[in-house]
């Protein structure tokens, strides 16, 4: 079982300041992203296959309209072969989604992306709830998805898996809802969208210090 960092608290503190209005903080989504191509080269948006968040320091996978590994309609069951013990099986469901170019579960999708070296990187992973929160624009709850569609053009008004179990129910895991901009728990066997991330949110740690 895993424990998340306090990225939400750090992000709010950095964006809002003491006594700041949180609704104004979401304006940061208009300016904080830039597109990356192979080897992390910055390019004009619409060209690159990855998106860098210049505030958090995280880099995100960008989906495409072409059928394949990063196809926007691919969905995956939640699966991690290392999440197991003698009494309860936390692993989830292997190959239980609907996708192309990999086995349709979160574990095998991460492996496939790292084997290909998306944008020149091989350290892609499943995001935390806080990390998905950091790209969720709450101004758009009335016109979802709650994200910057210029940089995430195939973001779905739906739920995306995180890499974290739900500790109260071994067959469940956390997801992030890009309709309302909040987290939710669901069965690991349920096919959901996935957007991979890389990095350690170094920028937020530096701001905190």
Which key features would you list for this structure?
five-stranded antiparallel β-sheet, 209 residues, alpha+beta, three-stranded antiparallel β-sheet, disordered C terminus
Radius of gyration (Å): 17 Å
Weakly predicted, low-confidence segments? 5-10, 12-20, 203-209
Number of helices: 5
Major β-sheet, in short? 5 strands, antiparallel
Query: How many beta-strand elements?
Result: 8
**N-to-C terminal Cα separation, in Å?**
28 Å
Mean pLDDT: 88
Tally of distinct domains: 1
Instruction: Give the overall shape.
Output: globular
Structural class: alpha+beta
Fraction of residues in helix: 10-25%
Note the beta-strand portion.
Answer: 15-25%
Order of strands, main sheet, comes to 2-1-3-4-8
Order of helices and strands: HHEEEEHHEEEEH
Overview of the molecule:
With 209 residues, the chain is an alpha+beta fold. It has one domain. Helix content is 18%, strand content 18%. The chain has helices at 7-16, 22-25, 106-116, 129-133, 202-208, and strands at residues 33-36, 42-43, 50-53, 59-61, 159-166, 169-177, 182-187, 197-198. Strands 2-1-3-4-8 form a five-stranded antiparallel β-sheet, with no helix packed on it. A three-stranded antiparallel β-sheet has the order 5-6-7. Strand 3 (50-53) and strand 4 (59-61) form a beta hairpin. The longest helix has 11 residues, at 106-116. The chain is globular, with a radius of gyration of 17 Å. It starts with 6 loop residues before the first helix and ends with a helix. Residues 5-10, 12-20 and 203-209 have low confidence and may be disordered.
């Amino acid at each position: 079982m895993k424990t998340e960092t306090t990225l939400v608290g750090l992000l709010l503190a950095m964006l809002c300041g003491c006594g700041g209005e949180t609704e104004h903080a979401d304006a940061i989504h208009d300016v904080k992203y830039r597109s990356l191509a192979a080897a992390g080269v910055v390019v004009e948006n619409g060209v690159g296959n990855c998106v860098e968040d210049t505030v958090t320091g995280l880099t995100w996978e960008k989906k495409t309209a072409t059928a394949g590994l990063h196809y926007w309609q691919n969905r995956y069951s939640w699966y991690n072969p290392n999440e197991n013990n003698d009494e309860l099986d936390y692993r989830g469901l292997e190959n239980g989604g609907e996708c192309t170019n990999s086995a349709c579960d979160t574990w095998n999708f991460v492996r496939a992306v790292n084997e290909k070296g998306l944008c020149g990187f091989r350290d892609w992973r499943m995001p935390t709830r806080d990390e998905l929160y950091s790209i969720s624009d709450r101004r758009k709850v009335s016109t979802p998805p709650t994200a910057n569609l210029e940089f995430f053009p195939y973001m779905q008004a739906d739920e995306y898996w995180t890499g974290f179990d739900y500790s109260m129910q071994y067959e469940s895991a956390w997801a992030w809802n890009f309709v309302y901009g909040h987290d939710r728990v669901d069965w690991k066997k349920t096919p959901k969208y996935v957007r991979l991330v890389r990095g350690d949110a170094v920028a937020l740690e530096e701001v905190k210090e």
